[in-house]
Structures are given as C-alpha cells and as structure tokens.
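Is BIS(adenosine)-5'-pentaphosphate placement plausible here? Inputs below.
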Amino acid sequence: MNLVFLGPPGVGKGSLAVRIAKDYGLLHISTGEMLRAEISAGTHTGKLAEKYINDGNLMPDSLIIEMLLSKLQHSTAKQGYILDGFPRTLNQAQELDKFVQIDAAINLDAPEAVLLKRISHRRICPVCGKGYISYMMSSNLCEQCGVEVIMRDDDKEEVVKARLVEYHTKTEPIIDYYRSTGKLISVDGDDTMEGVAAKVEEILEDLKLANN
Ligand code: AP5
Ligand code: MG
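Reply from A.M.:
I modeled the complex. Tokens:
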C-alpha cells in the first residue's frame, strides 16, 4: 500500500503516520522531518530549508520533488509507504503520479481553532525528534533521550499563520486533484488520536480487501 496523508499544519498527519506505519509495516516518509534532519546536519539543503520553513513558506517544488523521488528510489520498503507532507502542490502531486502508484490519499481536516491549539502544545525532542503534547508531560524531558523538549521554530504564532495561508492557497487545491483521480478519502481529524486512528484503520482494511 502506498498512501498519502494530506491536511493542514497540526491536524495530526505525523502522529497518525507513525502509528499506522508501525501497525501496517509501512515506511513513514515525512518531507518535513527530512528537511529538519538536513537543517540539523548543516547541509546546503538544510541552510536553504531553514529560511523557507522559518518564514512559513513551502520549499521550491524542484528541490523537494528531487529529494522525495531520490528517497523513494532508495527505499527498501517492500510493503509500501506513507507520504506525510508530500505532495503539497498540484505540481508535486502530478510529478508523483508519473513515478509511483498511490492507492489512497487520506485527507484529515479539523477547524482552525483545533489546529492552533494542537500546534501551541506540540513539543519535540531536539535529539530524536519524538513528539509530545505539553500538557500531557510529567516533566519537560524526552523519555528516550533525557534532554529538554523544545517547540519547533515554525510553531510560533506568526509563522503558523503564514503556513496556514500557504496551505489554503497551494495545498488545498490538490484535494480536488485526488478527488478527480478517485483516490481521495476524507477523515474528520477533530477527534481523539484513537478515534482518528480507528477510522483510518477501518478504511485501510477495506482497501486491503478491495486490492485482494
Ligand atoms: P511539516 O513538518 O510537514 O509540517 P506541517 O505540514 O505544517 O504539519 P505539522 O507537522 O505541523 O502537523 P501534523 O499534521 O504532522 O501534526 P502532528 O501529528 O505533529 O513541514 C514543515 C515545513 O517543511 C513546511 O512548512 C515547508 O516549509 C516544508 N515542507 C515540508 N514538506 C514540503 C513539501 N512537500 N513541499 C514544500 N515544502 C515542504 O500533530 C500536531 C500536534 O497535535 C502534536 O502535538 C500531536 O501530538 C497533537 N495531535 C495529533 N493528533 C491529535 C488528536 N487527534 N488529538 C489531540 N492532539 C493531537
Ligand atoms: Mg508533521
């Protein structure tokens, strides 16, 4: 199964992808995580990405498409993958379709107030990248690394506003693209993590049956 997880910033794509990838033996590919790894490593791509990400803008299509396709070419995932945060423009979606077969694009959505609240409480470990919800932590240390968790630089309020504008203008149009290709499956993301995961698992079971 090759899946795309679509949706606005903070809707829960990453959290859900970690869970579903584990349960279904899929490779989780997050272009946001790949870019943050480049930034940490101080590479040329990372230096460029830092500017775009911290301004709340999308990276240029050419660069991100090349990065993603190279990852897919070198991927060892025989059972498939989840693309989290790619495609983000119509051009990216069309390029992807030239190279791989996508089985479903799962579109998560939730009201803006919910997204803003989730983002304001998100913390990540600067070493291993594990995600946390601030009000659910008993201490502010990563349980795996023991270091203090941090807020993502692009989770500051003014950057989040810019990311939402980018989402509505550049990413939202690809919902119609996947609808037109018959791949779109919409899921209400305004539910508990367990609730969202259960709905998506039900969809994937149906998809597996249909493919057999
Ligand atoms: P990226 O890292 O992909 O950021 P994003 O799409 O803005 O999405 P987020 O990671 O903010 O949210 P999410 O949906 O993963 O939510 P999460 O699961 O963490 O991209 C960052 C940047 O990289 C972009 O702005 C762009 O510059 C660049 N980039 C990346 N890909 C690109 C591309 N293809 N083209 C061009 N540029 C690209 O959940 C959020 C919080 O809510 C967490 O704390 C989580 O624990 C919590 N949570 C999740 N689900 C629930 C729930 N059901 N109930 C309660 N809390 C929940
Ligand atoms: Mg994410």
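Short version: The chain has a mean pLDDT of 95.
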